[in-house]
Queue: 3 jobs
Job 1
Amino acid sequence: MACPFKGRAARPLVASLGVYLLAGLFTPAAAEMATTQTTAAPATEVETVIVNARRRNENIQNTPVSVTAISPTQLKNAAAPDIRDLAGRAPDLIIDQVNAGPSAAAISIRGISFEDIEKSFDPAVGVLIDDVYLGTNTGQLTDTFDLQSVQVLRGPQGTLFGRNTIGGVVNLQRTRPTGHFGGDFDLIVGDYGRKEYKGVLNLPELGGMLSTKLFVSERKSGGYFHNATIAADSPRSNVLRYGVDFLFKPVDNFDINLTIEHARERSQTDQASLSSSGDLICASLPLGPGGALIYLGPPYQPPASECNRHTGSDLYTTFSNKVGAVNNDETDVTAQATWRLGAVTLTSVTGYRENTEHVTQDFDAVSINFFDTVRNQHYHQISEELRASGNITKAIDYVVGVYYFDSEYTLNQTTNYGPLLQLLAGLPATGRQNVDHNSRSYAAFADVDWRFADKWRLSVGGRYTRDEKSLQNDFVGAFNIFAKNHWSEFTPKASLDYQATQDVLIYASYSRGFRSGGFNGRASTVYSSTTPYNPETVDAYEIGAKTEWFDRRLVFNAAIFDTEYHNKQEEVVLKTPPGSPDPQETLVANAAQARIYGAEFDLQAAATRNLNLRATLGLLHARYGNFFQVDAAFPQLRDSLSTLTLRRAPSVTAGAGFDFKAPVSYGTWTLTGDYRYIGAHETTITPAPGTGVWSGTGCAVATGATATCVYTAAVNEPRGHAVATNLVDLSLSLTHAASTGEIRASVFVRNLLDERHLAGALAVAGLFTFGAGIPPRTWGVELGYRF
């Protein structure tokens, strides 16, 4: 399906169409007509959802921001192993795994994403667990165990949520101790070696003030790739998490929630070979007599059968001779304290995360030694947020606060170069790099609501942020440098909303997001190590409506948005100059401007007392305004890459689902079905071979104006193209009320249609290309007991 919005001229059209729709379709008269069609009390209604999308607990239908609340029960019914299942359940949201780091995620909201797992880079989409911001993409792919609420906020969150995030926020809140003796236990067994157990045990309250919750979960999987080189299924996964949660209430107006947990991951990495004869690893080389082209074969190059394989079914057969290891040990401490002092509520959120990881990865994805790494890292972050909230008058309420974030990581990386790179590039058998990176952020923020007239509310806010970063990069035997810099930005936000009726809220908003500059922690040259990239900013405009119909039996929300992206940070994998200690490196530069606009729709309906329906739709148009980089062959010329398509920005995302309950004498049967559609999209911004480059005999001296020097327009690398995906999940469960608790049994199938497509790919500087497929069809059974 093509996006209905095209061209720069569409901006006023989008705005005027939005005003017309929202002011016309959702007028008070229309709303009154809808809500007075029936006078009888409804048989049921859509559940009221309370969110804290503006750091205030408020009905989602009274919140003038684009937020989707996803029920943890939906994820439980789908046997979702991690938050990748949120994709398709909220408009314009994509979540993929990045297998180069522990539980690493590539998250895109409204076409804004950043997927590199290097800890010197800030995520574009923030993930918060119990209000603590995760400072890296590593760890973002958290599980769906023991969740109280899941909220997806779309658009820049430059005021109220931890570090500035330009794309949006995935906000996860876990359950709190209840103070009553009880438990919730689940066991899942499925194909591909899936085994999971999860347990929560709440202990009785002690002394009328201390409640305790114990929790543990373990996820195991045998992997859905078949590695032909080692004749085994891969990559295997094993993630164990356990901890304790204390809720201390010594007096009525104060409580503190302390969570201490530990996670242990022992998993593997594996990927499919997408290399072709255009990559050095699979190319015929002019090494024969008289410069004749020959294919060397092992041990210099892989067997020809491992090249040119990039079709859907090929993605699930791998050839890595070294199935990588992902070992990670993590300790997290979170303390949330709340004081209710009359008209003012003080909230403190303190977070500490520390992890030690050992990751080996055979990036070349073939059976010979060409390029693999061993990465040992230690990372820690500490954050503190102190907020005050309350009412100045009946018409004015506020949230103000300060925020501090400090993170540091050390990296010891060994890169192993195979015989071909040693032969052609003169590289040693191994290269070593040691990195020490520090990041600090200070911020102050405020957000004020003013109900200045009947049914009208103005919200204004802003955040001032100062970020400081430093990098020590020691590429052993080549260079050892130190660099530091700082950046600051003010990010405002304003919205105006009108409560047209009790059931209709219309709003318009503007917000700015800011993502800090920094240094490339994986740089392979002195220049790229010492030259920082600068911050990027996003200006977002939005018009939306929150509506309820037929005595809350139908809830329908809509939004139209326009986003302008400035100084966009792009990471590009390039060959390094001759004599560099590594043949390739990832550069980050403020290379681009972009424009993204579209429309989003959320619907929920209580069709009957036993049937609930839901649907989402996201329409997106994302294009670069300009995107330039220096030509690799002719440094005096610039390549225009503005014809590339942004990554993970499908023009259509959609979802639909239902829950049908059938009470019987011995319990309740529940049938749950979900359909999720992710439109075709690109997973890499690398130009296809031979595109995005200058060529011709005159390029060495010409500027491109002569016929002997021509430019070939850039198109995306086709091996990074992900086709449209249709995901269907079904589950059937039975709950039975026993004398001691509730027993639940279910069967489920995920990806019923067995769609097998690309999840992500990376072309590495003309050297090699690798990728991975989405999970195929899986099934399993689940047993649960709650008391």
Job 2
Amino acid sequence: MQVIPKIIHQTWKSSELPADMLAFQQSWITHHPHWEYRLWTDQQNRQFLQTHYPWFLKIYDRYSENICRVDAIRYFILMHHGGVFIDLDFECLQPLDDFLDGKELVFGLEPSAHVELSQSQIRGLIHIVCPSLMASRAKHPFWSHVCQALVESKQLPGVLDATGPFLLTRAYDTFLAKDSITLASSEIFYPVTKFDCWDGKLDDPEFRQAVIQKALAVHHWHGTWFQFGNSQANPQALTKAALPLSLMVQGRIVLSAKFRHQLFQALELHQEQPPLISCMMVTKHRIAKAKLAIQCFQNQTYPHKELVIVDDDENNDLAQYVLNLGDTSIRHVHLAPQYQTLGELRNLALSHASGTYACQWDDDDLVDPLRLEIQLSALQALNAEACFLQRWLMWWPEQRRVATSRTRIWEGSILCRRDKLPAYPTQRQGEDTIVSQQILQTCRVALLDQPQLYLYIVHQENTFQAEHFEQHWQKASARFENNAYEVLMDGLAEQMPVLDYLKLLGRRAAPDPVSSAMLRGLQPDNQVIEQASTHNAETLISAASSPELNQFPPVLILTPVKNAASVLSRYVDNLFNLSYPHDRLSVGLLESDSEDGSFTWLQQHLGELQAEFRNVHLYKCDLQFSSSLPRWTPSIQFQRRSILAKSRNRLLQQSLQDEVWVLWLDVDVVEYPADIIQQLLQPGKDIIVPHCVVGPDRHSFDTNTFQFKSEAKNQDWSRFVLDGIIQPPRGEGRLYLEDLRSHPLTKVDSIGATMLLIKADLHRDGLLFPPFSYRQYIETEGLAMMAQDMGYTCWGMPQLEIVHVDA
């Protein structure tokens, strides 16, 4: 009995197929006359998701490449309907009925030659599970596993890792119940390699007959989206490619799109006089490298530019070099050595700049000739005030390796309106991180993902130590070594003076002529190596130096839930409205003892949350506590708060991963500023709470946050002790944040957790919520007393109000 339904699924952007695909389509219909055939259009695909899996639409719509949507939809269609999903460039040779009989889920393996390519080797793959032909029964549990993988991989930069064969391979390798899955050898569905197809070998009857003897079908590998490699290895493709571009406003990405660069001529059509860009370079003791940086400036295709050089070297050699160039667009400011900080020198360069825009131009890096042109075009396309690169190339020339960086805001790539660029702090390192953070908070910022525009060079004179750059290598989104290194550097040498840089090092100036010729003949897959894991897209914005400068460290929001169905929708809406980058936020929820369907509601909306945030955890743990009495009744306080402490501790232990901060948030806090996390982080305190009120400018709701009145801390509280914990009447010996509104920030003796921000390492060091009487306090108050005993101070922000349901 056949478990897999007799349905053939294929997809195209419309119902009109390309002429060269019609014969392939007909081959499936001819060999399966009694099967149902369905051609899904782009419009039908989206409608299908809207109807059956609306939680995934946000991810689906945000994919930067349509091929990602084509990949993703097939998983959902097979999960829902079952059948066989087949790419249009697949030719059927024999019916599938006998082969599929009795099977539940079938995939085919790509040829071993594909596994040997650099892309596969860098990921450590031993096989590649291909999504071009898949057969499945409906509702197979593997598809839920794939859906989770799609969520985790939504921001990975490469199609292969985000939705394609590398994602499917990872999903298969991590799926525990493999007994119901059949992996067909490559000779069944993929008897020829992509290179055989591209070389036209299938047109040779003798070759075709030899390779398809055991095949039921043959994939013709028409995937033109990947045939021609990546612009990292083909820099000229920048002039034609649609480039990934995002818009960030006040630290939050509000738009992701594709940007097609039309070169400088497009700017001239819109402006009689395009704006002047002032490139600012600070240098000392690096005349040879500085000359190459100047060369990169002169090679820029954007003509309306100037280079301001601030040089505090003891000699005048660079000044003489600039003078001999006779280039009026370059100005050299020579200072007597005064040991000024890098920040001070950058400010001096800025004071000499006269352009509408300012661009940081480091003296030891190399840039593509199109850098200024493309960054300005991207900035103007979004009506932005600044532009940063989200990734760049990092080169270790002495170690013969290159990496495409992880995704983050790279301060050194800044192009910004000069009137929006704040003064650099007077620091010797990390000065551009502070400036970049201010720009991200105050400007419309274009984020461009084109790493080949900038080659950051790691050498012995960098500001940061080797350990810092080794961390970048480990977290890189792509790594190039050995043959792949040679190919990439061969391409970059056509755009930047990399060979001249190698000569400075006394190294071999170019690849060996024989090996270079061989490498130029390598297939496109050898030219681009994108390493992926579910954590590769970890950082959109982080400081280039120390954690203290990291503006958007990962935050874990934790919420216990009980009988909260009436406020859950508002709770989720508020999370979605947070301006803190959502890919830096994780959410943990623990529901217990609800009688109003809270857990069911959370289950139904879990996918929506997972599609939006970095990680989402949902747990159920009934602790068998219920009471008909109001929750503030003294006689139930010990039991109620002991249970709540246990819930918090269990939620924390199960959810905390690599986050730097934990934000405790009650489910019935119904109103708070969108930038509440940034405001709580700003004072730099380890434990801090806002002012939780019952309404704007009204009295405090959270009376667990308090400051002892003078002399009250040491008074005899025994007459207020019930069940081992102090329970005084409101105001007895205590000041609440409502009494301290004249202070923007104040120390407090105890804290509540309607909203509470704690440095995660404090929890890791043992700071938990006591479910017992700790110095006659319990739960959040007990945590405050424990924190004091550990040497930490609790803080409150009386003027920063959040609103709780008045209960």
Job 3
Amino acid sequence: MHRLTMLGEVGLVDAAGRDVDSLLRQPKHIAFLAYLALPEPGTWHRRDSIIGTFWPEHDQSRARSALRSALHTVRRHLPEGAIKSRGDYELSVDGELVTTDVAVMKRYFAAGQYADALEQYRGELLPGVYIAQAEGFDQWLELQRSRTRSIAQKSAAHLASICEKQGNLPGAVDAARRAAELDPDDEGATRRWIALLDRVGDRAQAFAVYERFRDHMSEAFGIRPSAETIALLDDVRTRREPSAATISVSGITNAAAPHFRAPHGSTAVPQDDGTPVATRGAWLRYRAPWLAAPIVIAMVGWAAFSSQPDRRDAAPPRSLVILPMTNETHDPKLDYVASGIAEGIARRLEGIGGISVRSGARSDWHRSTRHDIIDLGQRFGFTIVLKSSVRKIGDSLEVTASAIEASTGEERTIAAQRFLTSGIRDAESRLAAAIGGVVFRAPIPAPTLQRRDEIDPESYRLMLEGVHELLSNVQPPNGTGGARYTNAVALFTQAVNIDPLNARAWSGLSSVASAQVTTDFVPFDEGYDRATAAAARALALDSLQGSAWATLAIMRAFKYRDLDVGLALIKRAQAAEPGNPEVFLVKGTLLMSAHLYDQAIDAFRMARQLDPLTSNYLDKEASAELCAGRPGKALALYQAELAINPSDRLARAGLTRSFAQLGRWNEAIASWRNDASLAGDSSLTAALQNARGENAYWALKHAAARKRLDAMKQRKDRMRPLRVIHTSFGVGDTASGYAALEKLTPATTPALYRLECMPETDEFRDTPHFRAVLGRIGSLGGG
């Protein structure tokens, strides 16, 4: 068996242990072999992806010729059959004939043999390897280096924990040192190393480690170590004897040792179990000052309140849900102010200790009466419900709010705030402080913003309007999505032109571009470049922009056809913004593309827990149940939603679809008729009045799809490839649908991974032809 070495050095030896020098002298060919052998031999790689990585400057004909030449050269230096083909599309390395040190390290790590795994990591992956005019290879190599380094660091952290539990403190210190050195920005790893040095009595070295880390943080990022690290050094400095306390150094169970990544250029990475490694305190400390200031002040108020024993002992766990703000200006153009302020208040309050905050700021929840609010609290387990409204007074806007005890209906009014649109951020901050004071019944002063860090007011306002345009109507009617994306792009672009340091506006641009790709509004390559460039800009300004990390996750997962790539970045997004439901929405979409429906349901359920009033998250969870072949569970979800919000358009449509998948055709027709009546479609309501059975249901579905198609033709809508497929199957024209499918691949249209989940294909999903097409498309790899 040949062995390819890539960690710390590049080498290739044959079964007799002889170096294959002739191939090693050809950097591009050894890089090509490494690409095929990673993440481990046996991984299939599509030819078009290989071409795009190694020969992006060539036209298709020359690139394919270059690929054939490279294959011929590499095969000459390997055992026969070492490079395998699957049809005309995919290549891989046979794991029975070629092994790699990376694969061995991964197997050791998976088996819990952390010392052996760490021994394999002798340095960075493919050191010194460079290929000219191949930017795609550079990006791929950097990603692979990060993944292998992460495995080594986790191995070191686990090994330190094992050694400590076994009483082998010198071994624990050595492993903790290795973990910290593998990632010098990881404050948690450095702190664990310092603590272990203290335990073995080497306080001089503990001080030296701290000083090196302090200097590194100052030089690289212009900041000091966190309060937790400084407190640890103070404890070491003042203690006469070495610490006897047992600490966890695994990086998994030690909540007091968050994995910190500095705000500019690097980020927190969660551990293996998915637990966010940044504690709430660390998250607050490194948020932008405009967000952290009111939360810190509110925490001071809460600490003062909770220090009173009689109140603290009696206080039950508290949870606050923020209802969507009512726009009483009667000007739809100011809807963004209502949703933006409500969301801003939620973002500011979510870090206060002693209370959990859930935002429904962007939901279409109907206006509630007091009785509804009591029922809402009982259904969702909220103890406090925040109602608010915005109205216009002359040139100013005024927000009024009240906090309602869900169990009793007791309402406490919060002081009104009046402001101009240029003062939205100040108004959010003052309202958050006032709400915190009322919730905790303890006065919390309004914070003083640090003006030098303030975003330009007009840029901030445009950013809020862009977010509203992008998110407030998550499932637009057919034909409106393109305009929504165009409007959002224009608003975010204006925001960054006014203030290039507006990280959230850059993040918004990345989210729009990502959405355009996943819904097939723009070609993948075009959208990928725009999305990743904007996300990188956002993260360079503020590495705690969770939506930007989520954009990188879904774009790179689709680019490299690797679920693991996406999930690793999703972990970073969760660590950066654990309260951002959009992160879990993206995670669910990735898992749906991998056909891991149960895991996708968990992700959508988490998004719904963070924002229980926005129906899109429930619809995503129920749709995943339908994809998994469990229409009964989807039906129960939709029925529960409609019981408390009968106006929910997504739930009404989902109810009809669930009945149909259960074969309850007459109930599906009745549900559809009710939906059409509520929507004011009298002709469809009449057509459904006397319809009965499966054939009538599908005939009317085809007719409704033809009506939508005619409307699109009248508007002269551009028929994107995925819409052609939707429309063809929707009208029952399977011949056109399958013909359109033959022209597409997931490489150009990632939404194809979720083809069986599309409502338009429900009629055909169990037919042999459709199942064969699904087999050809496959699923997002990895996981």
